[in-house]
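Troubleshooting: if your tokenizer reports a length mismatch, compare against these two reference records.
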Amino acid sequence: MATDAAPPQARFVVTYDTPSDVEAFERHYREVHIPLVKQQPGLRRMTLSHRPTGVIGPAPYLVVMMDWDDLASLQADLESAAGQRTVDDATTNLARYATFRGITMELADA
């Protein structure tokens, strides 16, 4: 992961509903998926939050936030071979256990 002093300007957020098989999901996520994500050359930071508290509506089982320098870097990583392996793993392997949603966003100070 890159380590610059400037704050990241782009984020990819993925939420996962409660898996049908929590143990299998967690094992695959830790042993296979996270190492794939970390192969993204522009990835600055990856954070996980298990079982967050819902404030409005039901909370997902897992929220993952990944930061990049900018949207162009994020998009380039998603389109790279490493990015495609990560997407393929999620849609092929993780999707059998849990519904998930992903969004990209540009970050700005308020």
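Reference record two:
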Amino acid sequence: MTADLSRLLGEVGAVLLDFDGPVCSIFASYSAAQIAAELVDVLRRRGVDVPPDLASEPDPLEVLRQTGATGDQGVTRAVEDALCAAELRAAQTAEPTPYGREAIVAARQAGMPVAVVSNNSARAVNAYLAGRRLAGYVSPVIGRAYAEPARMKPNPEPILQAVHVLDESPSRCVLIGDSLTDIEGSRAAGVRVIAYANRAPKVPAFRAAGADAVITSMGELARVLLARGDVHGG
């Protein structure tokens, strides 16, 4: 696996990171389920008849996605605003992913630019990076398009936006993500993808979905990037 990972990273020039998972657990203390419930309350206060499946939805991004699908931009903006505020609070107590920081620093030491491409808001991502003294290592940060949840991953648009800003070709970029939507979006964008399986049951699903490589610790990525940095005099 290390040889495969080393070969893959030797063929790319830029690293794109999903945020929630590879970098941190943003909802570690302020739970996703609690935020989702708060967003449902926003819908109810706006007079929306909330169906049972949405009322019990534990993923705030899915609440936003389903709200956006209704086509009511006023309600979608209200949910978006509430989610942005909640994510900003959550970023203050987010739990760093083991070796996430080391992987970011090692990539830069190896001469590779690092971007974040996230379905979370850019403000929350930037707040976390600044608080952890990582802002200087990561650019650009591509977050969720405001009140347009259809443009979130697996839509390849935010991935391609990062590729464009980095002035790289898609095939020379690799995205590290921890979800099937990351794999699907990367495939659609023509970007290589390393799936981070933070739980063992994810491994076969990620392989079946066509990830170029699967890792179970960000430490695996950090070690290979450190070795690349040594080879390149980083």
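Descriptive notes for reference record two:
- The chain has a mean pLDDT of 96.
- Residues 73-92 form the longest helix (20 residues).
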